[in-house]
Design goal:
Elements (H helix, E strand, L loop, with lengths): L4 E5 L5 E5 L18 E5 L4 E7 L5 E6 L4 E6 L5 E4 L5 E11 L2 E8 L5 E6 L7 E4 L11 E7 L5 E7 L7 E8 L7 E8 L6 E8 L5 E10 L2 E9 L7 E3 L6 E7 L5 E6 L7 E6 L7 E5 L6 E7 L3 E6 L2 E6 L6 E3 L4 H4 L2 E8 L2 E6 L3 E6 L2
Antiparallel strand pairs: 1-2, 2-7, 3-30, 4-5, 5-6, 6-7, 8-9, 9-10, 10-11, 12-13, 13-14, 14-15, 16-17, 17-18, 18-19, 20-21, 21-22, 22-23, 24-25, 25-26, 26-27, 28-29, 29-30
Length: 366
Protein backbone atom coordinates (compact mmCIF):
# COMPACT_ATOMS: atom_id res chain seq x y z
CA UNK A 1 0.00 0.00 0.00
CA UNK A 2 1.37 3.40 -0.86
CA UNK A 3 1.99 5.78 1.99
CA UNK A 4 -0.51 8.60 2.25
CA UNK A 5 -0.89 11.65 4.42
CA UNK A 6 -4.52 12.24 5.34
CA UNK A 7 -5.34 15.68 6.69
CA UNK A 8 -8.45 15.80 8.85
CA UNK A 9 -10.04 19.02 10.05
CA UNK A 10 -11.40 18.43 13.51
CA UNK A 11 -14.44 20.24 14.82
CA UNK A 12 -12.12 22.24 17.04
CA UNK A 13 -10.38 23.66 14.01
CA UNK A 14 -7.14 21.82 14.79
CA UNK A 15 -5.47 19.97 11.95
CA UNK A 16 -4.96 16.28 12.70
CA UNK A 17 -2.30 14.47 10.69
CA UNK A 18 -2.76 10.73 10.31
CA UNK A 19 -0.38 8.53 8.37
CA UNK A 20 -1.95 5.37 6.93
CA UNK A 21 -0.26 2.27 8.29
CA UNK A 22 2.36 1.60 5.64
CA UNK A 23 3.82 -1.64 4.44
CA UNK A 24 7.14 -2.41 6.12
CA UNK A 25 10.06 -0.93 4.21
CA UNK A 26 13.33 -2.83 4.27
CA UNK A 27 16.56 -0.87 4.36
CA UNK A 28 18.18 -2.82 1.56
CA UNK A 29 21.24 -4.23 3.35
CA UNK A 30 19.61 -4.06 6.79
CA UNK A 31 22.22 -4.67 9.50
CA UNK A 32 21.98 -8.05 11.13
CA UNK A 33 19.71 -7.96 14.16
CA UNK A 34 17.63 -4.93 13.13
CA UNK A 35 14.24 -5.14 11.46
CA UNK A 36 13.66 -2.91 8.47
CA UNK A 37 12.34 0.55 9.27
CA UNK A 38 8.62 1.17 9.03
CA UNK A 39 7.41 4.59 8.00
CA UNK A 40 4.94 5.62 10.72
CA UNK A 41 4.39 9.32 9.99
CA UNK A 42 5.15 11.89 7.32
CA UNK A 43 5.18 15.67 7.77
CA UNK A 44 5.27 17.05 4.25
CA UNK A 45 7.82 19.82 3.76
CA UNK A 46 9.03 19.67 7.39
CA UNK A 47 12.66 19.26 8.42
CA UNK A 48 12.38 17.24 11.66
CA UNK A 49 14.84 18.67 14.18
CA UNK A 50 13.86 17.00 17.45
CA UNK A 51 11.68 14.23 18.89
CA UNK A 52 10.54 14.03 22.51
CA UNK A 53 8.24 11.41 24.06
CA UNK A 54 6.74 11.33 27.55
CA UNK A 55 5.62 7.73 27.10
CA UNK A 56 4.90 5.47 24.12
CA UNK A 57 1.59 7.22 23.45
CA UNK A 58 2.44 10.87 24.01
CA UNK A 59 5.16 12.70 22.15
CA UNK A 60 6.27 15.75 20.21
CA UNK A 61 7.93 16.45 16.89
CA UNK A 62 9.69 19.78 16.47
CA UNK A 63 10.60 20.76 12.93
CA UNK A 64 10.72 23.65 10.52
CA UNK A 65 9.46 24.67 7.12
CA UNK A 66 10.37 27.71 5.04
CA UNK A 67 8.38 30.02 7.34
CA UNK A 68 8.79 28.91 10.94
CA UNK A 69 9.42 26.10 13.41
CA UNK A 70 6.52 23.68 13.75
CA UNK A 71 5.24 21.68 16.74
CA UNK A 72 3.22 18.47 16.33
CA UNK A 73 1.77 16.45 19.22
CA UNK A 74 0.48 12.87 19.39
CA UNK A 75 -1.31 11.13 22.25
CA UNK A 76 -2.22 7.93 20.39
CA UNK A 77 1.17 6.37 19.59
CA UNK A 78 1.74 8.37 16.37
CA UNK A 79 -1.55 7.38 14.71
CA UNK A 80 -2.56 11.04 14.53
CA UNK A 81 -0.70 14.32 15.08
CA UNK A 82 -2.09 17.69 16.10
CA UNK A 83 -0.46 20.83 14.74
CA UNK A 84 0.10 23.03 17.81
CA UNK A 85 2.44 25.51 16.18
CA UNK A 86 2.15 28.96 17.71
CA UNK A 87 1.47 31.74 15.19
CA UNK A 88 3.83 34.65 14.49
CA UNK A 89 7.01 32.94 15.68
CA UNK A 90 10.15 31.97 13.82
CA UNK A 91 11.81 29.24 15.89
CA UNK A 92 12.09 27.38 19.17
CA UNK A 93 15.36 28.22 20.86
CA UNK A 94 14.36 25.72 23.57
CA UNK A 95 11.55 23.18 23.93
CA UNK A 96 11.34 21.05 27.07
CA UNK A 97 9.00 18.64 28.83
CA UNK A 98 8.69 18.72 32.61
CA UNK A 99 5.95 16.09 32.76
CA UNK A 100 2.75 15.15 30.97
CA UNK A 101 0.97 18.12 32.50
CA UNK A 102 3.56 20.82 31.75
CA UNK A 103 5.72 21.71 28.75
CA UNK A 104 7.59 24.94 28.18
CA UNK A 105 9.62 26.70 25.51
CA UNK A 106 11.53 29.77 24.42
CA UNK A 107 10.20 31.22 21.17
CA UNK A 108 11.46 34.06 19.01
CA UNK A 109 9.04 36.19 17.00
CA UNK A 110 9.26 36.66 13.24
CA UNK A 111 8.88 40.40 13.26
CA UNK A 112 11.44 41.86 15.65
CA UNK A 113 13.39 39.00 17.28
CA UNK A 114 11.56 39.32 20.59
CA UNK A 115 11.87 36.23 22.79
CA UNK A 116 8.90 34.78 24.68
CA UNK A 117 8.78 32.28 27.52
CA UNK A 118 5.78 30.02 26.90
CA UNK A 119 4.25 27.23 28.95
CA UNK A 120 1.37 24.83 28.42
CA UNK A 121 -0.56 22.46 30.65
CA UNK A 122 -2.49 20.74 27.84
CA UNK A 123 0.28 19.38 25.58
CA UNK A 124 0.62 22.60 23.63
CA UNK A 125 -2.99 23.24 22.67
CA UNK A 126 -3.02 26.47 24.71
CA UNK A 127 -0.03 28.50 25.86
CA UNK A 128 0.75 31.13 28.46
CA UNK A 129 3.12 33.61 26.81
CA UNK A 130 5.42 36.14 28.49
CA UNK A 131 7.40 38.69 26.49
CA UNK A 132 10.95 38.66 27.86
CA UNK A 133 11.83 41.88 26.04
CA UNK A 134 9.49 43.91 28.25
CA UNK A 135 10.92 45.72 31.26
CA UNK A 136 8.53 43.98 33.66
CA UNK A 137 10.14 40.64 32.80
CA UNK A 138 13.36 41.72 34.52
CA UNK A 139 15.60 40.55 31.68
CA UNK A 140 15.15 43.04 28.85
CA UNK A 141 18.20 43.59 26.61
CA UNK A 142 19.57 40.15 27.48
CA UNK A 143 20.51 37.61 24.79
CA UNK A 144 18.83 34.45 26.05
CA UNK A 145 20.39 31.00 25.79
CA UNK A 146 18.24 28.39 27.55
CA UNK A 147 15.66 27.79 30.26
CA UNK A 148 15.03 25.13 32.93
CA UNK A 149 11.86 24.78 35.00
CA UNK A 150 12.08 22.75 38.22
CA UNK A 151 8.30 22.86 38.59
CA UNK A 152 5.45 24.94 37.19
CA UNK A 153 6.44 28.00 39.23
CA UNK A 154 10.18 27.84 39.85
CA UNK A 155 12.91 27.83 37.23
CA UNK A 156 16.07 29.36 35.80
CA UNK A 157 16.98 31.16 32.61
CA UNK A 158 20.48 31.80 31.28
CA UNK A 159 21.77 34.49 28.93
CA UNK A 160 24.40 37.14 28.43
CA UNK A 161 24.87 40.81 27.81
CA UNK A 162 26.46 41.73 24.53
CA UNK A 163 29.88 43.13 25.55
CA UNK A 164 31.46 46.31 24.29
CA UNK A 165 35.05 47.47 24.42
CA UNK A 166 34.08 49.75 27.31
CA UNK A 167 31.96 47.33 29.36
CA UNK A 168 32.56 43.96 30.99
CA UNK A 169 31.11 40.82 29.47
CA UNK A 170 28.56 39.13 31.71
CA UNK A 171 27.13 35.63 31.67
CA UNK A 172 23.87 35.75 33.61
CA UNK A 173 21.53 33.38 35.44
CA UNK A 174 17.99 34.47 36.33
CA UNK A 175 15.32 32.84 38.49
CA UNK A 176 11.53 32.90 38.41
CA UNK A 177 9.21 31.90 41.24
CA UNK A 178 5.96 32.84 39.47
CA UNK A 179 5.92 30.62 36.40
CA UNK A 180 7.93 32.91 34.14
CA UNK A 181 6.02 36.14 34.68
CA UNK A 182 9.13 37.85 36.04
CA UNK A 183 12.77 36.93 36.55
CA UNK A 184 15.47 38.08 38.99
CA UNK A 185 19.22 37.91 38.48
CA UNK A 186 20.84 35.40 40.84
CA UNK A 187 24.34 35.03 39.37
CA UNK A 188 26.70 36.89 37.04
CA UNK A 189 29.91 35.49 35.59
CA UNK A 190 32.25 38.35 34.76
CA UNK A 191 35.31 38.94 32.60
CA UNK A 192 36.75 42.40 33.05
CA UNK A 193 39.56 42.54 30.48
CA UNK A 194 39.19 42.87 26.72
CA UNK A 195 36.42 41.88 24.36
CA UNK A 196 35.52 38.33 25.37
CA UNK A 197 31.83 37.51 24.82
CA UNK A 198 30.36 34.84 27.10
CA UNK A 199 27.81 32.49 25.60
CA UNK A 200 25.78 30.44 28.08
CA UNK A 201 24.00 27.87 25.95
CA UNK A 202 22.59 24.99 28.07
CA UNK A 203 21.13 24.53 31.54
CA UNK A 204 20.22 21.07 32.86
CA UNK A 205 19.17 19.47 36.14
CA UNK A 206 21.57 16.64 36.95
CA UNK A 207 20.02 15.49 40.24
CA UNK A 208 17.32 16.50 42.70
CA UNK A 209 19.50 19.34 43.98
CA UNK A 210 22.15 19.90 41.27
CA UNK A 211 21.98 22.16 38.21
CA UNK A 212 24.66 22.56 35.54
CA UNK A 213 25.12 25.48 33.13
CA UNK A 214 27.37 25.01 30.09
CA UNK A 215 28.83 27.78 27.97
CA UNK A 216 31.91 29.13 26.25
CA UNK A 217 34.03 32.27 26.15
CA UNK A 218 35.52 33.79 23.02
CA UNK A 219 39.23 34.23 23.76
CA UNK A 220 40.53 34.84 20.23
CA UNK A 221 39.27 34.82 16.66
CA UNK A 222 37.18 31.62 16.33
CA UNK A 223 38.79 30.21 19.46
CA UNK A 224 36.85 29.49 22.64
CA UNK A 225 37.35 28.00 26.07
CA UNK A 226 34.64 26.19 27.96
CA UNK A 227 32.88 27.32 31.09
CA UNK A 228 30.69 25.28 33.44
CA UNK A 229 28.73 26.80 36.32
CA UNK A 230 27.21 24.44 38.87
CA UNK A 231 24.78 24.67 41.76
CA UNK A 232 24.43 21.80 44.23
CA UNK A 233 21.68 23.48 46.29
CA UNK A 234 18.99 24.02 43.63
CA UNK A 235 20.25 27.42 42.54
CA UNK A 236 20.88 29.11 45.88
CA UNK A 237 24.63 29.33 45.22
CA UNK A 238 26.67 28.90 42.03
CA UNK A 239 30.31 28.05 41.39
CA UNK A 240 32.43 28.00 38.24
CA UNK A 241 33.99 24.66 37.28
CA UNK A 242 36.78 23.97 34.79
CA UNK A 243 36.77 20.42 33.48
CA UNK A 244 38.65 18.46 30.86
CA UNK A 245 36.10 19.06 28.11
CA UNK A 246 36.26 20.45 24.57
CA UNK A 247 35.61 24.11 23.86
CA UNK A 248 31.89 23.63 23.36
CA UNK A 249 29.86 21.22 25.50
CA UNK A 250 26.25 20.30 24.75
CA UNK A 251 24.61 18.12 27.44
CA UNK A 252 22.25 15.69 25.72
CA UNK A 253 21.03 13.08 28.17
CA UNK A 254 20.74 12.78 31.96
CA UNK A 255 20.22 9.35 33.50
CA UNK A 256 18.23 8.80 36.69
CA UNK A 257 21.46 8.14 38.61
CA UNK A 258 22.89 11.52 37.53
CA UNK A 259 25.15 10.24 34.74
CA UNK A 260 25.54 12.90 32.04
CA UNK A 261 26.05 12.09 28.37
CA UNK A 262 27.12 15.05 26.28
CA UNK A 263 28.48 16.05 22.90
CA UNK A 264 31.66 18.10 22.65
CA UNK A 265 33.05 20.14 19.78
CA UNK A 266 36.37 21.83 19.03
CA UNK A 267 36.31 25.49 18.00
CA UNK A 268 39.72 25.20 16.32
CA UNK A 269 38.89 22.09 14.31
CA UNK A 270 35.24 21.87 13.36
CA UNK A 271 35.77 18.29 12.17
CA UNK A 272 36.41 17.15 15.75
CA UNK A 273 33.42 16.09 17.83
CA UNK A 274 33.13 13.80 20.82
CA UNK A 275 30.72 11.75 22.92
CA UNK A 276 31.43 12.41 26.60
CA UNK A 277 30.24 10.92 29.88
CA UNK A 278 30.37 12.20 33.44
CA UNK A 279 29.50 9.65 36.11
CA UNK A 280 28.05 10.60 39.52
CA UNK A 281 30.80 11.64 41.89
CA UNK A 282 33.30 11.99 39.06
CA UNK A 283 34.60 15.52 38.59
CA UNK A 284 35.80 14.82 35.04
CA UNK A 285 34.19 13.92 31.74
CA UNK A 286 35.41 10.74 30.05
CA UNK A 287 35.75 10.74 26.27
CA UNK A 288 33.86 7.69 25.02
CA UNK A 289 34.09 8.21 21.29
CA UNK A 290 35.64 10.60 18.77
CA UNK A 291 33.88 11.04 15.44
CA UNK A 292 35.68 9.92 12.33
CA UNK A 293 37.33 12.63 10.26
CA UNK A 294 34.75 14.59 8.29
CA UNK A 295 31.78 13.42 10.42
CA UNK A 296 30.03 15.23 13.29
CA UNK A 297 27.90 13.88 16.15
CA UNK A 298 24.47 15.55 16.10
CA UNK A 299 22.47 14.05 18.98
CA UNK A 300 22.47 11.17 21.43
CA UNK A 301 19.78 9.35 23.42
CA UNK A 302 20.67 6.82 26.12
CA UNK A 303 18.35 4.37 27.88
CA UNK A 304 19.13 2.93 31.32
CA UNK A 305 22.89 3.28 30.79
CA UNK A 306 22.64 0.24 28.51
CA UNK A 307 21.71 1.26 24.98
CA UNK A 308 22.50 4.39 23.00
CA UNK A 309 21.29 5.70 19.69
CA UNK A 310 22.96 8.68 18.06
CA UNK A 311 23.27 10.53 14.79
CA UNK A 312 26.62 11.10 13.15
CA UNK A 313 26.41 13.37 10.12
CA UNK A 314 23.60 11.83 8.04
CA UNK A 315 23.47 8.33 9.58
CA UNK A 316 21.92 6.97 12.78
CA UNK A 317 23.74 4.35 14.87
CA UNK A 318 22.77 2.10 17.76
CA UNK A 319 25.38 1.03 20.29
CA UNK A 320 26.05 -0.15 23.80
CA UNK A 321 27.08 2.71 26.08
CA UNK A 322 30.79 1.90 26.00
CA UNK A 323 30.57 2.97 22.31
CA UNK A 324 33.23 0.46 21.30
CA UNK A 325 31.01 -0.90 18.54
CA UNK A 326 28.24 0.72 16.53
CA UNK A 327 25.64 -0.56 14.11
CA UNK A 328 24.48 1.79 11.36
CA UNK A 329 20.73 2.16 10.82
CA UNK A 330 20.17 2.77 7.15
CA UNK A 331 17.17 4.94 6.33
CA UNK A 332 14.85 3.49 3.69
CA UNK A 333 15.37 5.05 0.26
CA UNK A 334 18.03 7.32 1.75
CA UNK A 335 18.40 9.36 -1.37
CA UNK A 336 14.75 10.43 -1.15
CA UNK A 337 14.23 10.44 2.60
CA UNK A 338 16.82 13.05 3.49
CA UNK A 339 19.42 12.84 6.22
CA UNK A 340 18.80 11.58 9.75
CA UNK A 341 18.54 14.47 12.21
CA UNK A 342 17.33 12.99 15.47
CA UNK A 343 16.23 9.83 17.28
CA UNK A 344 14.38 8.54 20.33
CA UNK A 345 14.69 5.27 22.28
CA UNK A 346 11.47 3.76 23.67
CA UNK A 347 13.14 0.55 24.87
CA UNK A 348 16.47 -1.12 24.17
CA UNK A 349 14.76 -2.76 21.19
CA UNK A 350 12.30 -0.16 19.94
CA UNK A 351 13.21 3.28 18.60
CA UNK A 352 12.32 5.93 16.02
CA UNK A 353 14.39 8.25 13.88
CA UNK A 354 13.42 11.49 12.12
CA UNK A 355 14.74 12.81 8.83
CA UNK A 356 15.27 16.18 7.24
CA UNK A 357 12.34 15.78 4.86
CA UNK A 358 9.71 14.98 7.47
CA UNK A 359 9.66 11.19 7.82
CA UNK A 360 9.49 9.21 11.07
CA UNK A 361 10.66 5.59 10.91
CA UNK A 362 10.21 2.97 13.61
CA UNK A 363 12.68 0.16 14.18
CA UNK A 364 12.90 -2.94 16.34
CA UNK A 365 15.90 -5.01 17.33
CA UNK A 366 15.36 -8.72 16.76
Amino acid sequence: MKNKLIILLATTGVLLFSACKPDPIVNGPTPSGIDGGVLVSTFAGINIADIKFIDKKTGFVIGSDSMANRLYVTNDSMKTWQDHTLPNYTYFSAFKVLNKGYIYALLTSKSNNETFFCSSTDLGKNWQQYDLSKSESGIENILIGDVLMLNEQEGFLIGYEQPTFQNDSLGLIFKTINGGVSWNRVYAYKISSGYHPIYLNDIIQTSASSILVAGRILIDFNKYKNILIESVDNGITWQEKRLNIPDFLKPENIQTDGTIYALGYSSENYNLSYILKKSPGNQLFDTLKIADSGTVFMNIDVLNNNTAIYCKSSIAYISTTDFKTETPILVPNAGLSGIVNTSWLFTEKDFIIGTSNGNLYRYKLK
